[in-house]
Amino acid sequence: MAVRIDELSISCRNFEPDQPIPREHAVEGVNTSVDLDITGVPADAVELAVICHDPDAPMPDGFTHWTVYGLAPETRTVDSESGRQGPNSLGKTGYTGPNPPSGHGVHRYYFWVYALDTLVDGTPTREDFLTQYGPHVLEQNRVVGTYSR
Questions:
Q1: pLDDT confidence bin for 6, thresholds 50/70/90
Q2: In CATH, which superfamily holds the domain spanning 9-147?
Q3: Where are the beta strands (DSSP E) in the chain?
Q4: Using an 8 Å Cβ cutoff, are 111 and 104 in contact?
Q5: Pairing with 133, which of 60, 67, 112, 114 sits 20 to 30 Å away (CA)?
Q6: Quick check: 116 and 47 in contact, CB under 8 A?
Q7: What is the pTM of this model?
């Protein structure tokens, strides 16, 4: 099945696309999650998932900052209280903000929303989610923020 790229949209109340994420949402700040807004969910979606990933982190698979599963298709806002908070690359549950190495330059933080045709079982890692549920993605989209230290 081909992934549609029709109407699904994700935006962030805390930063404009491709602009810096405010320090309060970073580890060196208060480390509070950003607030995301979702629109255009396909009518046949069964569940939504959200993942924040930094591909610029100096690790083989980048760094996953946030995984959220179990979001109903009617979900329109996502924060640290939403859905089933899953593991990040620290092995902890929930959101951990930007924390790139000092002097490593600007990192990009991709906040992905996935509309799925099935329910997600448990709280898989980002890698396991993409492997197991990739074939079930109806539509996906992302908003990108930046951060540097």
A1: confident
A2: PEBP-like (3.90.280.10)
A3: 9-12, 19-20, 36-39, 47-54, 63-71, 77-78, 84-85, 107-116, 137-147
A4: no
A5: 60
A6: yes
A7: 0.95
Residue 40, token pair as written in the block: 């255009």
Q: Give the domain ranges of the chain.
A: 9-147
pLDDT above 90 covers a percentage of the chain that reads: 96
Can you read off the two tokens belonging to residue 31? 């480390």
Cα 60 to Cα 70: distance, rounded to the nearest angstrom: 28
List the one residue out of 49, 53, 69 whose CA is nearest residue 109.
Answer: 53
Amino acid at site 28 = E
CA 119 to CA 122: how far, in whole Å?
Answer: 9
CA atoms within 13 A of residue 134's CA, in its CB half-sphere: 7
Residues 94-145 have pLDDT tens digits of 999 999 999 999 999 999 999 999 999 999 999 999 999 999 999 999 999 9
The average pLDDT across 71-97 equals: 97
Long-range contact set of residues 18-24: C-beta below 8 Å, sequence gap at least 24: 18/144, 18/145, 18/146, 19/145, 19/146, 20/145, 20/146, 20/147, 20/148, 21/97, 21/98, 21/109, 21/145, 21/146, 21/147
